[in-house]
């Protein structure tokens, strides 16, 4: 049984694991018309990396191939995890230019979803730092593409959710760092207007993100904590760490051992989040490790099990900036009114981006978790209506249930994307459960 | 990172296997230089690049076919310097039903799991003994602990390898060559891809790698991967033959 990170839906999939290009090409050929989809580390939440007939696990495609210490250019295979890149290159003074909120994603998955990080407003998304990639097509050809080489295929592949072909290798540019520490400033915002104002005045910070208390209502609606950060300089690092400023202090990870029975959800979640808030929540400036700053949830391995066997869905939308103040308020009001407090509620101001299928657009993105059940699904239809009314869209990497109507309104580049997809892979061999559900 | 030039190389026979790759990473992590041997060493170029980049160790690639036993002396004598550790992960599960009918298929399973590794490891052990010692590690299998209808030809070859390694261990004990027999149960690799394996009894290749490293440092003789297998196999071995022959394990 295979699923995304939300453990909904769970499907019996035949998994094929290539070790090298020859294996991958053979798997694509063998799949033929019945189709297949690449899978990275399964950190997308829904059904994007699932195909009943053939799911191509890229996790054994995990070799680092070349690195230029002058420029920070890294060439690696698509199944390499960001955590491998961190382990290898942070001690040498390099950091991923863009990282999502978990380090357990593959490079291929990060490209296919064109993931964004806390620095999207400044540095764009993951693929803005990709020089080129090698893409395996359904006819067995491997095409190298990049911003100036087969740019059309490259553009469609970023955010293309594996549907334009299977990424075999990529060359990325890492960013130089002098320490493995972050200077973090934590600011409390009593309501939504304040947090949005804070985002506006924090645009010069490299990293910004806010945690919203979505149980707060009326005057306190949107009450939140803003975290903003910069890579710390050596003088800022605690004195006893200055000798080895790039060493990453190993911190403890805790595993959620098994599915939580219904009801335990709250205890686990509250405990987990209290811990996080405790670590990060005090207003003021602190020098914190890069790991807890970027990956607060990664210290709780397998935390997706706290939702129990039925799984959960994550709802992440983005609204255009002019509509955000009204739209985000409407969404938060709906959540608070329904009493469906999502413990994970993240707000962030994204920068400009205009690709065919990439999720980010200039405006506010809100991400919420809900248990996967019938009341949730009907409630999410209400949220969909608000998102549609305000010209927003949902993130495919999180989605397990949206309808085609919202998809079409949210992704005007869809028709162009489909043309490119079909031109390069006429048989449409690369397809996922999500692609079939949404007729991508 | 400590200076790799002072450390003796680790030779991995069958280095393109999933278990071999995992073992290479674990040894490289400790700064040991590597010699990776496989039928098609070119396929290992990306692995070599990875190990150099991640761990800064020297990596050499060598062509090695375990079936070419007349070529083994030249292969073994061509290794310079003499490896401090050798791990043989070569193996072939084969098709039991085919091997029941076709002697050539049976012979291939036996040669790949027993004769070939036996010849190579024997020669390597002697060369290590002459050089002052070392560690020889063979990957056997729990399948060698008792012959079962579903895979007894593979099991017989692995049993042969285990007996061989036991004798080698005994012969070279005084010569500072330590011989380890590793017996994995199920491992999630290319060999078992597509099979329905019980989660609790199935190891990742990296668990085998850690067991191998541990066996070397602790000078263990025979190790199971996932200790429950020691128990499971003890029970299976204890079943009296009149009972065992009726089972469908
Ligand atoms: C705790 C947590 C925090 C997160 N935070 C963020 C965040 O801050 N920002 C953000 O943008 N996302 C975030 N995500 C989502 C995650 O970054 C993306 O879903 C990412 O795509 C997951 O990568 P993966 O390797 O697990 O890919 P999978 O989930 O396995 O696959 C995702 C998609 O990529 C495709 N794919 C994977 N590998 C390849 C390949 N080699 N070739 C072609 N297609 C491929 C799949 O077909 C699928 O469509 C978060 C997820 C979690 C669990
Ligand atoms: N997977 C399990 O459940 C399991 C359980 C117990 C024991 N084992 C043992 O573990 C070892 C490693 O196997 P694995 O699971 O990692 O599977 P694997 O990837 O299939 O490894 C088998 C290896 O043997 C090599 N090989 C086969 N014939 C050869 C020959 N003539 N000359 C040189 N090399 C040859 C193969 O080389 P190519 O790469 O060139 O094909 C391959 O690398 C084997 O000895 C196996 O019997 C496995």
Molecular structure report:
- The complex is a heterodimer of chains A (440) and B (249).
- Chain A contains 13 helices and 21 strands.
- Chain A is α+β, with helices and mostly antiparallel strands.
- Chain A folds into 2 domains: 59-177, Uridine Diphospho-n-acetylenolpyruvylglucosamine Reductase, domain 3; 181-409, Vanillyl-alcohol Oxidase, Chain A, domain 3.
- In chain A, the strands form 5 sheets. Chain A has an 8-stranded antiparallel beta sheet with strand order 16-12-14-13-19-20-18-21. In chain A, strands 6, 7, 8, 9, 10 and 11 form a 6-stranded antiparallel beta sheet that branches.
- In chain A, α9 (321-338) runs antiparallel to α10 (374-389).
- Chain A is globular, with a radius of gyration of 21 Å.
- The two termini of chain A are 24 Å apart.
- In chain A, 49% of the residues are buried.
- The mean pLDDT of chain A is 92.
- Chain B is an alpha/beta fold and 249 residues long.
- Chain B has a single domain (10-244), classed as NAD(P)-binding Rossmann-like Domain (Rossmann fold).
- Helix content of chain B is 45%, strand content 16%.
- In chain B, the strands form 2 sheets. A 7-stranded parallel beta sheet of chain B has the order 3-2-1-4-5-6-9, sandwiched between helices. A two-stranded parallel sheet of chain B has the order 7-8.
- In chain B, α1 links the parallel β1 and β2 (34-38).
- In chain B, α5 packs parallel to α6 (152-172).
- Chain B is globular and about 55 Å long.
- The site of flavin-adenine dinucleotide has 34 residues of chain A, from β4, α3 and β11.
């Amino acid at each position: 049984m295979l699923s995304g990170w939300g453990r909904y839906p769970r499907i019996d999939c035949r998994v094929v694991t290539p070790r090298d290009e020859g294996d991958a090409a053979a798997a694509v050929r063998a799949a033929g018309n019945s189709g297949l989809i690449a899978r990275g580390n399964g950190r997308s939440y829904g059904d994007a990396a699932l195909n009943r007939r053939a799911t191509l696990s890229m996790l054994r495609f995990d070799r680092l191939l070349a690195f230029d210490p002058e420029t920070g250019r890294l060439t690696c295979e698509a199944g390499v995890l960001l955590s491998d890149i961190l382990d290898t290159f942070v001690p040498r003074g390099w950091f991923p230019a863009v990282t999502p909120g978990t380090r357990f994603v593959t490079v291929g998955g990060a490209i296919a979803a064109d993931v964004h990080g806390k620095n999207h407003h400044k540095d764009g998304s993951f693929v803005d730092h990709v020089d080129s990639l090698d893409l395996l097509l359904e006819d067995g050809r491997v095409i190298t593409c990049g911003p100036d080489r087969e740019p059309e295929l490259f553009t469609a592949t970023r955010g293309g959710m594996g549907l334009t072909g299977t990424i075999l290798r990529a060359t990325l540019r890492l960013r130089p760092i002098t320490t493995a520490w972050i200077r973090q400033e934590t600011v409390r915002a009593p309501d939504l207007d304040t947090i949005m104002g804070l985002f506006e005045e924090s645009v010069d910070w490299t990293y910004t993100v806010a945690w919203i208390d979505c149980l707060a209502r009326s005057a306190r609606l949107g009450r939140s904590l803003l975290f903003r950060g910069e890579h710390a300089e050596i003088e800022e690092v605690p004195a006893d760490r200055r000798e080895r400023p790039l060493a990453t202090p190993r911190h403890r990870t805790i595993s959620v051992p098994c599915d939580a029975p219904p009801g335990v959800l709250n205890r686990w979640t509250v405990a987990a989040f209290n811990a996080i808030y405790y670590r990060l929540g005090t207003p003021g400036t602190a020098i914190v490790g890069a790991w807890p700053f970027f990956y607060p949830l990664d210290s709780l391995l397998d935390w997706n099990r706290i939702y129990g066997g039925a799984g959960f869905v994550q709802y992440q939308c983005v609204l255009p900036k002019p509509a955000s103040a009204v739209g985000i308020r409407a969404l938060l009001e709906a959540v608070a009114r329904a009493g469906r407090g999502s413990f994970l509620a993240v707000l962030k101001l994204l920068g400009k981006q205009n690709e065919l299928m990439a999720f980010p657009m200039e405006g506010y993105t809100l991400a919420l978790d809900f248990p996967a059940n019938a009341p949730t699904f009907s409630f999410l239809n209400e949220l969909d209506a608000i998102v549609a009314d305000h010209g927003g869209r949902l993130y495919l990497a999180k989605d397990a249930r949206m309808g085609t109507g919202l998809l079409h309104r949210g992704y005007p580049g869809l028709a162009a994307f489909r043309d490119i997809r079909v031109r390069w892979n006429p048989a449409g061999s690369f397809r996922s459960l999500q692609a079939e559900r949404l007729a991508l | 990172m400590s200076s790799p030039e002072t450390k003796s190389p680790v030779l991995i026979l069958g280095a393109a296997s999933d278990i071999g790759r995992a073992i290479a990473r674990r040894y490289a992590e400790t700064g040991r230089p590597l010699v990776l041997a496989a039928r098609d060493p070119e396929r290992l170029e990306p692995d070599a690049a990875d190990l150099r980049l991640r761990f800064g160790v020297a990596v050499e690639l060598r062509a090695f076919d375990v079936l070419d036993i007349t070529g083994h002396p030249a292969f073994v004598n061509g290794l310079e310097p003499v490896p401090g550790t050798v791990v043989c992960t070569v193996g072939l599960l084969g098709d039991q039903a085919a091997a029941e009918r076709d002697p050539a298929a049976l012979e291939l399973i036996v040669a790949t799991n027993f004769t070939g590794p036996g010849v190579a490891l024997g020669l390597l052990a002697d060369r290590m003994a002459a050089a002052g010692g070392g560690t020889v590690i063979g990957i056997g299998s729990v399948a060698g602990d008792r012959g079962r209808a579903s895979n007894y030809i593979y099991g017989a070859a692995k049993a042969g390898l285990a007996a061989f390694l036991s004798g080698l261990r005994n012969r070279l004990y005084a010569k500072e060559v330590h011989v380890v027999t590793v017996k994995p149960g199920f491992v999630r690799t290319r060999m078992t891809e597509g099979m329905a394996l019980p989660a609790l009894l199935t190891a990742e290749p990296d668990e085998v790698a850690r067991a191998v490293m541990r066996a070397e440092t602790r000078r263990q003789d025979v190790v199971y991967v996932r200790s429950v297998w020691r128990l499971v196999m003890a029970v299976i071995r204890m079943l009296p033959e009149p009972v065992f022959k009726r089972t469908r394990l």
